[in-house]
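Fold it.
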Amino acid sequence: MAEETLRKGTKLSGKTSYEKWQESEGIPIVRGYYVEDLQSVQLEPWARLGGRAAFINLQGSENTNGGYVCEIPPGASLKPEAHLYEELVYVLSGHGGTVIWDREGAKQTFEWQAGSLFSPPLNTNHQHFNGSGTEPVRFLAVTTAPLIINLFHNLDFVFRNDFRFNDRYDGAAGYFSQTQEPAYRNVWETNFVSDLRSFEVRGGSGRGVAVRSAHFELASNVLGAHISEFPVGAYKKAHRHGPGANILMLSGEGYSLMWPEGQQKQRVDWRAGSLFVPPDKWFHQHFNSGATPARFVALKWGYKFSLGGSFAYEGFDLDVKEGGNQIEYEDQDPQIHETYVAECAKHGVVVRPELQTKKAAANQ
């Protein structure tokens, strides 16, 4: 669906400190509501890191968080960096390693591959290396740079600050080993996930009877992540929350609907590698119309260190009729299910209506 048909955001005249910094970096800036394929985003040389990159400024982030796509050439590395904003890194393709060191010089190295998720601890020095001599690495990073740069509007303070966050990183061995068991319920407190695409999703979800999910709190960040998977012939309940949930599709084929309450629904078609961010308090609903299970990761504001306010997820799985932010299947627009049946038919998929009932979900 053409991006120009989606709602255009409004803002006061003038540019923020973050926007001015982005423009000064000299790399492309991708705007809109979604990116069809992050692997196809055009990149340009980025002097700051030494690779090729592009900023991702999707409307639904609403200047609360932002992102960039970066590529490391074969057999090369990026420049070392340190900064006062948090960063989640998801590896789109390739394999390699990262070196982390604090102000006292102690170093740790860990390896990653396509599908890995990790977070360099706040304001530590870190450097990424491509482990292949023939293929480039490409990764997506979601950061709190918009908040931090707009708050301090002093780049020396953000990028050349010597403060050590010892409560977040003390150099302990095994910091980047994948945690094997959840810390509580369905939440993993970890600093590294080897492969989100194959990670076992054990927990249920209030989004539907067959929906499975897992949540991650990384490096004591305010930013967190969760993966969600839903089977063939099924779709999730409509829901809404605050801005900044960067939804990256990991597998499957389908579409999502997004709409402000009482207004026209907008459609985003997706596949593995697609990225979109539902705007603040817009309802959105995800549909698997393909022949394989669909899985995504949402890189977003976390739960343990929630900022609250407009970012909060209170009542995220509570019926809107009870003051929550979720629409039950029985209360959705009937056209939603009719459209889904038609879309599945195009792919030879049999819809499983028993998975779209409140009664079935309650019995799980």
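Residues 28 and 54 are 5 Å apart (CA to CA).
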